[in-house]
Amino acid sequence: MEKHPGYSDELSDEERSLGFIIAFVNNPNAVYSGHGSIVPAVIFPVRPGNLLIKVVRPDDNVIEYSHRIYGSYENDPYRPQWRPILIPIASAGIAVQAALKD
After folding, report:
1. Reported pTM
2. What is the pLDDT of residue 90?
3. Number of C-beta neighbours around residue 48 at 10 A
4. Strand ranges across the sheet with 38-47
5. Which of 2, 15, 57, 72 could form a disulfide with 80 if both were Cys (CB 3.0 to 4.6 A apart)?
6. How far is CA 24 from CA 14, 57, 76, in A?
7. CB 71 within 8 A of CB 22
8. DSSP state, 3?
9. Per-residue pLDDT reduced to its tens digit, 11-52
């Protein structure tokens, strides 16, 4: 299975205790020839259409957690995808707290 360089599929003990899981998500690179449509990633399912995803910053390999919802922008209604709604958060615990306050 192809991995995405911006997502991590390594689940830590802390993440597991918080409720994170490894799941298959849409591959942002799927539009390019030779890339699969899904990739493994560490996620925290907040509710349907709403999740945290463990991301890896490409410039320095720092781990962060991005809160995303599935949908379309008003000016681009025909391309639904996972869209970030907050800036990424460095702490898994704080990211979960913030996502559950929504």
Report:
1. 0.84
2. 95
3. 7
4. 21-26, 38-47, 50-56, 63-73, 76-84
5. 72
6. 20, 19, 25
7. no
8. P
9. 999 999 999 999 998 877 666 666 777 889 999 999 998 999
Choose among 49, 35, 40: nearest CA to 83.
49
Contact of 13 with 46, CB cutoff 8 Å: no
The token pair at 60 is 């320095």
User: What pLDDT is stored for residue 45 in this prediction?
Assistant: 95
Q: Is the dihedral of CA 10, 39, 54, 56 positive or negative?
A: positive
72: confidence class by pLDDT, cuts 50, 70, 90: confident
| Tokens found for residue 18 | 């918080």
Distance CA 57, CA 43 (A): 16
3-class SS at 38? strand
24 CB neighbour count, 10 Å cutoff? 14
